[in-house]
Design goal:
A 4-stranded antiparallel beta sheet has the order 1-28-25-24, with no helix packed on it. It is built from 4 helices and 28 strands. It is 20% helix and 30% strand. It is α+β, with helices and mostly antiparallel strands and 395 residues long. It starts with a helix and ends with a strand.
Length: 395
């Protein structure tokens, strides 16, 4: 019986399995997954895929919006809800910070958002890992105005370094009033773990301890299918915060907190969502948001994915849009050239009174042309991946 249980769980969720692990069959727990739609078509970030969802009333109108991180260019999309909280309706998206460089994660590779009021000032901030090493904080300084993302730091002031951080969650893990970080780390495809970085500073000026492994059933959590993406929620409504993890093979698992919120203790993994089969539309690389989607009092799952690769063919409208993007970029690049020449002339002439203003304009012109270049490059990517958001409604 123990061996059968372990084999069954390995199909559902490959996470640090042992003979005491329990599994929850997704077909019993959830209704059939459905794809979130935009303009009555499945939402698809395409390009590099890796859609990463989060639900939050971004514009403060009382209706929850959908935030979707994507791999391409380190961007975050904002889908404003034109419907209601019970029946959301999305018709298009805008880019966070209008697509400017200060609204992207470094190296432009993999935005995976969590909305959280990190400094407890009453304004919701956004955090995201930058896949290669760090976790960045986009602080909302005044209502609707976000600062450029900056990395969280260790106690010595150096940016935290965690190898291949696909996901990160801010949570008060030890109930001391300060937000800590739970981070997924991938050292290699078959050697992944979940790490805790304790906030030794303050919420306004956080400084984190060196990472320590999070344990499950007293053992190190090992995730052999890559891309661990953790989030924190009270999944079983017992008042204790649990760990939920999306995995590279497309599955989602649950580590129940059998301790306390002051001293969490996690049980062995239980599978919530199975890895997709080869003939399924749903893809791999699960990015998870836990939310009561239909407001029935039960927590549901939004699971973003990376689907199959395809060759992007531009239609007539997209071809025209690409040409317009090319013209905008060429115009702004020419403007940048003019500003650069003016700056160089002033620098040679020693016109210090005008130099600072011209330097700022040069920086602004450079940022504008880089933003427009990103818009143009999005049309030029031929090999793309689907990236959809799947809703698993709890029965």
């Amino acid at each position: 019986m123990i061996q059968r249980s372990a084999r069954f769980l390995a199909v559902l969720f490959v996470l640090a399995l042992d003979s005491h692990a329990t599994a929850v069959q997704s077909q019993e727990l959830f209704a059939e997954p459905i794809a979130i739609e935009v303009n009555d078509q499945p939402l698809d970030v395409e390009l590099g895929g890796n859609a990463a969802p989060w639900v939050h009333d971004f514009d403060g109108d009382g209706v929850r919006d959908l935030l979707v991180g994507e791999e391409f260019d380190g961007r975050l999309r904002i889908y404003r809800n034109r419907g209601s909280n019970v029946k959301p309706k999305f018709s298009g998206f805008e880019l966070f910070q209008q697509g400017a460089e200060q609204g992207k994660v470094p190296d432009k590779h993999g935005f995976c958002p969590q909305v959280v009021d990190f400094d407890q000032d009453g304004l919701a901030d956004i955090i995201s890992p930058a896949w290669y090493a760090s976790v960045h904080w986009f602080r909302q300084s005044t209502k609707g105005v976000f600062e450029e993302g900056r990395p969280f730091v260790y106690q010595n002031g150096m940016p935290i370094r965690v190898q291949w951080t696909y996901g990160a969650a801010a949570v008060d893990w030890n109930a001391d009033g300060k937000l800590d970080l739970i981070v997924g780390q991938q050292e290699s495809f078959d050697n992944c773990s979940i790490l805790l970085l304790t906030n030794e500073g303050t919420n306004h000026a956080p400084q984190f301890s060196q990472p320590t492994p999070v344990l499950s059933d007293g053992k190190l959590i090992r995730i052999p299918d890559g891309q661990p993406t953790p989030t924190i929620a009270d999944w079983d409504a017992d008042g204790r915060l649990d760990l939920i993890v999306g995995v590279g093979n497309g599955s989602v698992g649950w580590f129940r907190n059998i301790g306390t919120n002051q001293t969490p203790k996690l049980s062995a993994a239980a599978g919530l969502v199975a890895a997709p089969k080869a003939d399924e539309t749903r893809g791999i690389s699960a990015k998870v948001c836990v939310v009561d989607w239909n407001l029935d009092g039960k927590l549901d799952l939004l699971v973003g994915d990376r689907g199959k690769q395809f060759d992007k063919q531009l239609d007539q409208v997209e071809t025209l849009a690409m040409e317009q993007a090319r013209q905008r970029h060429e115009s702004e690049l020419a403007n940048w050239g003019r500003v650069f020449r003016s700056f160089s002339t002033l620098a040679k002439q020693g016109e210090s009174s005008k130099l600072d203003a011209e330097r700022r304009e040069l920086i602004n012109a450079n940022n504008r042309q880089k933003k427009l270049l990103g818009e143009l490059q999005a049309y030029q990517v031929k090999k793309q991946y689907h990236g959809r958001i799947w809703l698993f409604v709890r029965r």
